Amino acid sequence: MIGAGGTSILALSVLVLVEQRTISPIIDFSLLRHRVFLSANISLLLSLLALFSVNVLLPFYLEELHGFSLEQAGFLLTPLPITLAMVAPLAGRLSDRIGTRGLATGGLVVACIGLILLCQLDARSSMWAIIWRLVVIGVGRALFQAPNNSALLKSAPLKQQGSAAGSWQPVVSSVRV
């Protein structure tokens, strides 16, 4: 465990050194100087750590405590991504109209409430109790992620928005064909 942590820190340090010295870096660390970009990335990372724990822990709960098969457990997990897919486009449009800060904050609050509600499940909880809690988390994630991603991209300078989006930008050659 300690060795893996040390190796990770060493690899991250080497990555930063290499990326800062290359002409066309994959990761543009200068973007982290923008306060909104940095805070949007940190909040995204922390929210995903919390919210993806549902994807890791809930199958064990469904299979071990409720005795569901793998197929049943997988089926019971689908309300969250379905809700996310349905609400995220609406949240994106809404964030374009009203702004990103309040919507993203509200989305995190809803997602946190959903996680708290999910913690109240026990071995006697019904399928409906599981499903509606996952829907609450899905709504919260959608209300957070779409506006947060929008804020993240809008905070980057125009020339760096491709890097901010995580896309690869080819180096433009000065040679004409």
From TrEMBL:
Membrane topology: Multi-pass membrane protein
Classification via Pfam families: MFS_1
Domain of life: Bacteria
Transmembrane intervals: 36-62, 74-92, 98-119, 126-144
Domain Major facilitator superfamily (MFS) profile: 36-177
Compartment annotation: Cell membrane
SUPFAM superfamilies, alphabetized: MFS general substrate transporter
InterPro entries per record: MFS, MFS_dom, MFS_trans_sf
Keywords for the protein's UniProt record, in alphabetical order: Membrane, Transmembrane, Transmembrane helix, Transport
Name used for this protein in its record: Major facilitator superfamily (MFS) profile domain-containing protein
